[in-house]
Design goal:
The complex is a heterodimer of chains A (507) and B (305). Chain A is of the alpha/beta class. In chain A, 34% of the residues lie in helices and 23% in strands. In chain A, the strands form five sheets. In chain A, strands 13, 16, 19, 20, 21, 22 and 23 form a seven-stranded mixed sheet that branches. Chain A has a six-stranded mixed sheet with strand order 6-7-8-3-9-10, sandwiched between helices. In chain A, helix 3 packs across helix 4, helix 3 crosses helix 5 and helix 12 crosses helix 13. Chain B has a single domain, classed as ABC transporter involved in vitamin B12 uptake, BtuC (Orthogonal Bundle), CATH 1.10.3470. Chain B has 13 helices and no strands. Chain B is globular. The N and C termini of chain B lie far apart (66 Å). In chain B, 49% of the residues are buried. Classes of the chains: A alpha/beta (507), B mainly alpha (305). At the A-B interface, helix 2 and helix 3 of A face helix 8 and helix 9 of B. Chain B: GO terms for molecular function: transmembrane transporter activity.
Chain lengths: 507, 305
């Protein structure tokens, strides 16, 4: 361990208006799992892009095994033994597994040999894969396997993993960790990017924490508490949502026997989904991405009409009503994708406010838009939800993810919904903004609204939900009170073992 | 009706389909790389006029074809620079390219109206050409007919079996992922656009040097648009592009013969029939089986962060 595998010295990278990395230095040893921790926008991705040759540093230098290392492009980094598993963007849905793997290699062998190698490596590391399946048909966990196997085939010395567990079930996370530990035992090093502190404490030998582009500290995570790590990441402490003790009221939203065909080739059908949601209650729906979350939201919001007699709002059948009619009746929703679904990117915040609040806030009258009222509404959202923006005339695209998320959630909350359905309310949002959004949802529930939160962040669901259910391949498990749920049982629910659960619960 | 000779009819299908086939196979490559170039019509007619002018002045149809390919490819590069480097809108720029091509060709072509160009000789394939019926239908054409079919086979093989083809498809499928893996998205697309331009130029030159063979303003008469439609309905697959082009060529020849033979069908319907039949058949083909546009088709690529 005298000479580190990779050492970074004074790496600096600036983009117009922002310094993404400022004088960052640390070492990664041989056979070490090194965590890179930080909030969104702390400069983690820019740093690894420099190591992987996608971005050239403005200043500073790197050394690999003591020799200067300045990859001009990813293929140079790959030749030097650096491989990277991306969080997203690096698989081709329409191509089969083998071709996807070949694209990430310098000199791929013939398809048949490659397919055999893929089978061998994937079995050796406990990540079974069929080389001829089309990637678009794979689950999130399987897609990640494709990326990992693609890296492993090149015998990397350093494997960079960007938020690998954000799309996995707890069981899949265990499999991944076992694979990573095996790699470590073979003397390979791993640079592990995450903001999940428990994982880092369980897996990593060393952790480097970035904040606003600067290195804050390098420490041993097993000897540092999660709270200390979190405070180093954020730089200050932030408010955790307050627990509350409201008793649920009458049933506001009832869904029964909801089945819908898949919307497209890569979508998920909904199969016999049913639940009840009461006033003052928060129901959390978890599950691995792509198991019907988006489809459930669009069935509830009215973007896709449901079969008659499946969705009841305050006892009224709204299954065949369009989104506007459902909004009039008090069923509001905020989809996951902020730009392009929840908000029109090139329109101003005022205009985006009009788009969903036109009728409930009486912004449109006799077919004409009352712009003064529209601006007032947008300003109210901005003020109440602390949206950091120059003003309501700013285009939605110009806002950071967290600020736009606060705006689109706030926009719905201020319309006083009877039932609010949100999908991934804090996805890609920094910790402080996430806490504010969760608190706003809880406050809304305390005022008597019924809230359905669809999320892949289990910690979030455990924190704010009264009851929890999981989506698996379009089926919804029975909802169970959050109090008393163990991680293991949640994993089983997410994995689709509903029947066992029911038998277990009633026994 | 007796005046239609079936052998001659079928033989002329190949000649009639070749311009569209050349343009369509080029556009297939362009679209597989994720670029939507609507300027095929403009590039074809530029190829037609440049090929004609060079062939008349040099007396060599071969030189005409080469000049046509080069001229259209250079023209297509202007589209490439605008859309790939300056990130202009692909649809608008493609339409602009068509307008530029039509205008430019009318200007260049004015002195050449009414002239006759040297044309390509029919290849003599020896005993093959002497075969009864088949010899007339398949083996008595000029070299460009066979080149265009060879080009389809080559494009198919490159896309399916080679690494270059895989990278091209990957860029068209998901340019962000391809960029993350270190492939030069813009450079690959510029090369595809250049190839597509050259093919469209060859197709245009085939019209003015072999099919017609003379220069009239606007002589492509929508062939570029048909090529674009064939690419889409053929689900971006080379062999289906061939089927589509031959189908269109076949119906075109048939309806011309029917008109000449004085068939008892309104001329308007006969003239429209190639378009209708092509669309109908290709819709039926693409309605079944897996088909899908390249994932990044027409989307601008920002190499940013």
């Amino acid at each position: 361990m005298d000479e580190p595998l990779l050492s970074l010295r004074g790496l600096t990278k600036a983009y117009p208006g922002v310094v993404a990395n400022d004088d960052v230095s640390f070492d990664i040893g041989h056979g070490e799992i090194h965590a890179l921790l930080g909030e969104n926008g702390a400069g983690k991705s820019t740093l690894v892009k420099m190591i992987y040759g996608l971005v050239q540093p403005d200043a500073g230098e790197m050394a690999l095994r003591g020799a200067p290392f300045a990859p001009a492009e990813p293929s140079a980094a790959r030749r030097a033994g650096v491989a990277m598993v991306f969080q997203h963007f690096s698989l081709f849905d329409a191509l089969p597994v083998a071709e996807n793997v070949a694209l990430g290699m310098e000199t791929p062998p013939k398809t048949r040999d490659l397919a055999r190698q893929i089978r061998d490596v994937s079995e050796e590391y406990g990540l079974p894969l069929d080389p001829y399946r089309t990637v678009g048909t794979l689950s999130a966990g399987e897609r990640q396997r494709v990326e990992i196997v693609r890296c492993l085939l090149q015998e990397p010395q350093l494997l960079i993993m960007d938020e690998p567990t954000s799309v996995l079930t707890p069981q899949e996370v265990e499999i991944l960790f076992a694979t990573l530990r095996k790699l470590k035992s073979e003397g390979r090093s791993i640079l592990y990017i995450s903001h999940k502190l428990d994982e880092i404490r369980a897996l990593c030998d060393t952790a480097t924490i970035l904040r606003l582009g600067k290195r804050v500290a390098t420490c041993t995570p097993t000897e540092t508490s999660a709270r200390e790590l979190a405070e180093m990441m954020v730089g200050s402490s932030f408010a955790a949502p307050e627990p509350r003790g409201t008793a649920p009221g009458e049933v506001a939203l009832e869904v029964a026997g909801l089945s819908l065909s898949a919307p497209g080739a890569f979508g998920t059908p909904l199969r016999d989904v049913g639940f009840e949601l009461s006033r003052g209650e928060v129901l959390g729906i978890g599950g691995v991405a792509g198991n019907g979350q988006d489809e459930l939201l669009s069935a509830l919001s009215g973007e896709r009409l449901a079969p008659r007699g499946t969705i009841f709002l305050m006892g009224q059948d709204v299954s065949r009503r369009r989104p506007v009619a459902r909004r009039d009746a008090g069923l509001l929703s905020a989809p996951e994708e902020r730009l392009g679904h929840a908000a029109a990117p090139d329109m101003s915040l005022t205009e985006n406010g009009v788009l969903t609040a036109a009728r409930r806030e009486r912004i449109v009258r006799r077919g004409f838009i009352d712009w003064a009222r529209a601006k007032g509404f947008a300003e109210k959202v901005i003020e109440r939800f602390d949206v950091r923006t120059p003003g309501p005339g700013t285009a939605a695209r110009a806002l950071s993810g967290g600020n736009l998320q606060k705006f689109v959630i706030g926009r719905e909350i201020l319309q006083r919904p009877e039932v609010l359905v949100v999908n991934q309310p804090t996805w890609g949002v920094d910790a402080a903004a996430a806490a504010a959004i969760r608190q706003a949802l809880l406050d809304l529930a305390a005022e008597g609204a019924a809230i359905l939160v669809i999320s892949q962040d289990l910690d979030e669901l455990m924190q704010i939900s009264d009851r929890f259910a999981a989506l698996n391949e379009g089926r919804l498990s029975p909802a169970r009170p959050v109090a008393g749920l163990t991680m293991e049982r949640i994993g089983l629910m997410m994995g689709g073992a509903h029947d066992m659960e029911v038998a277990h619960g009633t026994a | 009706m007796e005046s239609i000779n079936p052998i001659l009819l079928i033989a002329s299908i190949m000649v009639s389909a070749t311009p569209i086939l050349l343009a369509a196979i080029g556009e297939t490559v362009v679209e597989r790389s994720g670029v939507l170039n609507l300027g095929v019509e403009g590039m074809m007619i530029t190829g037609a006029v440049v090929g004609f002018a060079v062939a008349v002045n040099s007396g060599s149809p071969g030189a005409g074809f080469a000049a046509a390919a080069l001229a259209s490819a250079v023209l297509s590069l202007s589209f490439g620079v605008l859309t790939q480097l300056l990130l202009s809108n692909q649809v608008a720029t493609g339409l602009g390219l068509t307008l530029v091509g039509l205008g430019l060709s009318a200007l260049i072509g004015k002195p050449y109206e009414g002239m006759k160009s040297p044309t390509l000789p029919k290849l003599d394939l020896g005993p093959l050409s002497d075969l009864p019926i088949l010899g007339r239908i398949l083996f008595s054409h000029d070299i460009m007919v066979y080149l265009s079919i060879a080009l389809v086979a080559a494009v198919w093989a490159v896309l399916k079996f080679t690494r270059a083809g895989l990278i091209l498809r990957a860029v068209g499928e998901n340019h962000d992922a391809a960029h993350a893996l270190g492939y030069k998205v813009v450079r690959i697309r510029l090369m595809a656009i250049f190839f597509g331009g050259a093919c469209a130029g060859l197709g245009g030159a085939y019209l003015s040097l072999v099919r017609v063979p003379q220069w009239t303003e606007g002589m492509t008469a929508g062939a570029g648009w048909i090529a674009l439609a064939i690419v889409v309905f053929a689900s971006w697959r080379p062999w289906r592009v061939l089927i589509g082009a031959y189908l269109f060529g076949g119906v075109t020849v048939l309806q011309l013969n029917l008109q000449a033979a004085g068939a008892d069908v309104p001329v308007a319907i006969l003239s429209a029939s190639p378009y209708l039949v092509t669309i109908l058949v290709l819709v039926i083909i693409s309605a079944r089986g897996v088909h899908g546009a390249p994932g990044s088709l027409g989307r601008p690529f920002h190499p940013g962060l």
